[in-house]
Amino acid sequence: MRLSVSSVLRSVAVLAALASCASVSLYDEVKRGYPPGEYIVGVGETAATGDEAADRRVAGVQARRDIAEQIRVRIESVMIDEACSGGTDGNCRNRVTLVAKTSANEILVNSRIDKTGQRENTVWAAAIIERNETDAALARARGSFAKTPPSPFVQAGKIQPRGVVRGVKAEGACAVVGMTAEQARLTALQRARQAAIEQASGVRVDSSAVVTEARLAVDFIRTYSSGYIVEEDVTWLPLGQYQRDSSSPPIPEYRVSITATVRLPEKKIKPLGLAASLNGSLFRAGEAARIAVSTERPARIAVFNIMADDRVAMIFPTSDGGYNIMTDGKNIVTYPSRKEDQIVIANLPGHTRDAEAFFIVAMDAGHEGDFVATFGHNPMEFKEFFKRYAGIADNCEDAIFPYEVVGKP
Question: Cβ distance 108 to 69 under 8 Å?
């Protein structure tokens, strides 16, 4: 996302409730058609390409992913309280994350696509599943948790003080299909980082063998909250080739090897009850993002943008010292008061599709850490950001919201 931070966020207004101040998004509009006590509803969106059947399939996949994410969050909140010393055991939390993701995905077999439609240039789909299926997924997760071993680094006693795992070696690769060479290089590096974090944390995120569209890159971004790469030595390997079968032509493939130091979270606080939402998972260039955040206990809030050029920037609190203390059970919404101050989403120059994310952090209000002093407002390299974040992560909860940016036709 390309932002002029000084002008775009200078007058971001902090409001009490999203519903009273924002126009109804497509996401909210679709969900209103279902009784909340009976169904969990997932909404998926994708840019219209002219291939109606393909667009609906893509939107349907996104809708089911939305359901899985909602179920995962529910399972994690319950099981962390049950099994992880109130959330302070970082390795336990990682194991819970693993079984929660697996159980949520398995229960999706009982979901169905109920509606599809198109609004302007966006194709959407609504997936539903009966709310009582959450109980079945939770029971499945509880059963799996007892069988899930801790990280091999934990078993081998290789985790250093403060949850640091050194010398983690991993490789990543990406074939140049439907993206630029620059995007393929970054995706290969993201895959290597993903593999390193998975080795250290024991949390695995499934991914496709070949990334053919930018939306699949969001799966890699989700891994980042399971562990933080604070140091990495990157070695680019000779350009390779990927060939699906003998009847298909070979495709250039970027390959990279890294040796990383991974910091695993070891929570030292009681759960803050962080909950957040983003007004979509797919944005057209020029559209505005809105983020709603709430906590159950007092906390300071920060919002970061993980950009498609492998940099990270803090966009809230703002440079003019915007208020960022949460009160119990209240919502905070970064919502622009004027059109010229919107958080406008845009592709990188020369790109028509990018995968990015908002990284939302809640810090215990009693902790002495300061977001502005730690991160400032200038974009920084991915590695540098997580190195700094690792210094406060034990006193924070975080959530990550990947999204796709599609250029205007």
Answer: no
- The H-assigned helical ranges of 300-344 are none
Query: Cα(92)–Cα(80) distance, rounded to whole angstroms?
Result: 8
Judgement on whether residues 300 and 407 belong to the same structural domain of the protein: yes
C-alpha 275/C-alpha 257 separation (Å) is: 36
pLDDT digits 0-9 by tens, 366-398: 888 889 889 998 999 988 898 898 888 888 888
Print the domain residue range for 100: 24-150
Q: Which of 90, 122, 150 is the last residue of a domain?
A: 150
The CATH code of the domain that includes 363 is 2.60.40.2550
**Residue spans of alpha helices (H) in 41-180:** 52-83, 90-107, 133-145, 152-155
Within 8 A by CB and 6+ apart from 110, the residues are 129, 130, 133
Question: What is the reported pTM?
Answer: 0.62
Tokens of 61: 């996949």
- The Cβ-side half-sphere exposure at 396, using a 13 Å CA radius, reads 24
d(CA 88, CA 265): 9
Report CA torsion sign: 81, 85, 86, 92: negative
> Is 42 in the same domain as 141?
yes
Say if CB 403 and CB 357 are below 8 A apart: yes
CA distance 183 to 217: 10
64 shares a domain with 15: no
Structural domain tally of the chain? 3
